Amino acid sequence: MSDLRTPLTSWHEAQGAKMAPFAGWLMPIQYEGILAEHLHTRKHAGIFDICHMGEFRIEGPGATEALSRAVSHNLETLAPGKCRYGFLLTEKGGVLDDGIIYRFGPDSFMAVVNAACAPGDLATLRARLPESIRITDISAETGKVDLQGPDSLDVLEKIMGENFHDLGYFSFRESKWQGVPVLVSRTGYTGELGYELYLPTDKTEAFWKALLADERVKPVGLGARDTLRLEAGLPLYGHDLDEEHTPAEAGMARMMTSQADYVGREGAQTVREVLVPLQIEGRRAARHGDVLALPGGEAVGRITSGSFAPSLGYVIAFAWVAAAHADKEDFVVRASRTELPAKKVEIPFYKEGTARKKLV
Q1: What family is this (predicted)?
Q2: Which of 19, 25, 277, 324 could form a disulfide with 52 if both were Cys (CB 3.0 to 4.6 A apart)?
Q3: How far, in Å, CA of 247 to CA of 89, rounded?
Q4: pLDDT in the model for residue 150
Q5: Count of CB atoms within 10 A of residue 344's CB?
């Protein structure tokens, strides 16, 4: 089976982007280079093709209560025009997927989930929700572009002809661009001020090109998306999150504020391993699966994500570490035949982003 194509795949190919399979889709990895794209996003504004993500509308009388029992998100305190990050859990509290839920009204929501997990997420939600609640897969008809970086607000206001200074973090607004409906969401995966923009699939390329008409904007591939999110201390499903680990183990216990009896609630607080952020000596990046050991040689964990951090000038990583050793400060990464000294640090690794900046 060939990889799926987004509405922008042909454009990426025409620009000479390096393409590769990702979550069943053919996606751009880089255009002019990961380093250049990463630093441009930190300094100006980058746009990302995120059309492969899954979107589901969930509606009907009683949807708040029903959805609250299916996911970990606290929907009782989520106001219309706001969105919240959370988890779809297994019965034992492991993470089936992470994602954002948007609230449009009293019983009207949109769930945005990871591309590789979307078919399974849809089946799981349908099984957990009563038949009276409508769940509609709108992924195929929904285009999605991320605009991220310090210049993103000014670029957005210029193209939309609208003031978005009052749009708070994890808030959204329904707007229009040249008569086309656009949902403007102030969220993102880079640590920078930024926006996730949803619009009809067949209008995505025109909107993408209009954004690129601003000289401050450049296209950014999945390579720099990964280095940006890692610097921001944000986990990636399938690497730093999975069915074998709970939100509490990933440092997300503070987000589990829902009082609903949702699937996996009790197990979600279990801690056997801890996701630990590391700074690694040298220029060699640790890789997913590399063994993490104590300086004395005892293996206590494994790397989940690792990369050279372009904004910082050194190597960073996440690792699962046995809970009994998670308070240690010094470790060693066994990378092939090399041992790399590593030190536990705090996240976010990169602390200069502006995602939470108050704009009003």
Answers
A1: Belongs to the GcvT family.
A2: 25
A3: 9
A4: 98
A5: 16
Residue 92's pLDDT is what? 98
Same domain? 28 vs 132: yes
Cβ atoms 208, 11 nearer than 8 A: yes
Q: How many domains does the chain have?
A: 2
Rg (CA), the chain: 20
The 3-class SS string of 48-116 reads: EECCCCEEEEEECCCHHHHHHCCCCCCCCCCCCCEEEEEEEECCCCCEEEEEEEEEEECCEEEEEECHH
Give the C-alpha separation, 167 to 234, whole Å.
22
Return the pLDDT at 335. 86
Kindly report the pTM of this predicted structure: 0.96
Q: Average per-residue pLDDT in the chain?
A: 97
What tokens appear for 92 in the block?
A: 């034992």
CA count, 13 A, side-chain hemisphere, 287? 6
- 103 and 3 in one domain? yes
Residue 114 near residue 124 (C-beta atoms within 8 A): no
Residues of the chain with pLDDT under 70: 1
Do 280 and 205 belong to one domain? no
> The CATH number of the domain where 148 resides is what?
3.30.1360.120
CA distance 165 to 157: 9
How far, in Å, CA of 250 to CA of 311, rounded?
24
With CA atoms as reference, report the closest residue to 237 among 318, 337, 179: 318
Determine, yes or no, domain membership for 111: yes
Element (H, E) at 222: helix 222-231
98 located within any domain: yes
DSSP 8-state class, residue 282: S
Name the DSSP letter for residue 34.
H
73 and 218 together in one domain: yes
Tokens coding 188: 């993102």
Compute the residue count for the chain: 360
> pLDDT for 44-93, tens place per residue?
999 999 999 999 999 999 999 999 999 999 999 999 999 999 999 999 99
pLDDT of the residue at 1: 47
**Is the CB of residue 43 less than 8 Å from the CB of residue 120?**
no
pLDDT at 317: 98
Q: Is 2 left (phi over 0), alpha (psi -120 to 50) or beta?
A: beta
